[in-house]
Design a protein that fits this description.
The protein is an alpha/beta fold. The chain has a single domain, classed as Rossmann fold (3-Layer(aba) Sandwich). The protein has 5 helices and 9 strands, in the order αββββαβαβαββαβ. The strands form 2 sheets. It has a 7-stranded parallel β-sheet. α2 packs across α5. It is globular and about 45 Å long.
């Protein structure tokens, strides 16, 4: 049987070892934070290029389409609930991550008692971004996010009543749940969580975070 030269074997083995060592599976390695690839369109923020914290911006449709994350950006999808809106949001996040070559991990709360622990597990992974899907996570995020200001959060289809600078939200008419016992800026409508709306929300929200526009509400108008 023909055997490859020893030198070739050693080169191949070294390449495999190098690939494993530098792979994205090891999130414990420190590295520079990824920067955005591309730029926001002029209609995303409007005339105020630095919106105030907790303010709401209404971007022009598609003004976020040229922004994407660097390949390998570390994202945790934090989910809770089996309702159709949450499932649609989760599907949208996974589609965006696959398209953008994002290193995605998932943390899902198993029940009501696991909501807060799930948020903590997501933060403990030290990702570049935690994306939250599901109204049940709003109160736990309100508890955890102020104590982890270095961690960016993106809430899709809901918002925190008093977000800190590290929490960005994307809402629209039919979404905007703000927590237990709190009013919303629009009537909740599960039918508004269409695949197209959720896909746009994920892309618009991640574009805002990647370009440094955090702590705001991105409102998607028709």
């Amino acid at each position: 049987m023909h055997r490859p030269p020893l030198a070739a074997v050693l080169v191949t083995a070294a390449a495999l070892l190098t690939g494993c060592a530098s792979g994205d599976d090891d999130w414990s390695r420190l590295r520079p934070s990824p920067s955005a690839i591309g730029a926001l369109g002029a209609g995303f923020i409007g005339p105020d290029t630095s919106p105030a914290p907790e303010s709401t911006v209404t971007p022009s449709p598609g003004s976020w389409s040229e922004v994407r994350p660097a390949a390998g950006t570390r994202v945790v999808l934090l989910g809770a609930g089996s309702d159709r809106p949450t499932k649609t949001l989760v599907k949208a996040v996974k589609a965006w991550a696959d398209e953008a070559d994002v290193d995605l991990r998932t943390e899902t709360a198993s029940d009501e008692t696991d909501l807060l622990p799930a948020v903590i597990r997501a933060v403990d992974l030290h990702p570049d971004l935690v994306i939250s899907a599901g109204n049940d996570l709003i109160d736990p995020l309100t508890t955890v996010s102020p104590s982890h200001l270095a961690q960016d959060f993106l809430v899709v289809g809901a918002e925190l009543a008093e977000p800190t600078e590290n929490v960005t939200a994307v809402d629209w008419s039919g979404a905007s749940y703000r927590g237990e016992g709190l009013g919303m800026s629009s009537t909740y409508d599960p039918a508004s969580f269409t695949e197209a709306r959720c896909a746009a929300a994920v892309r618009a929200g991640t574009a805002a975070v990647l370009t440094g526009h955090t702590g705001i509400v991105v409102w998607l108008d028709d």
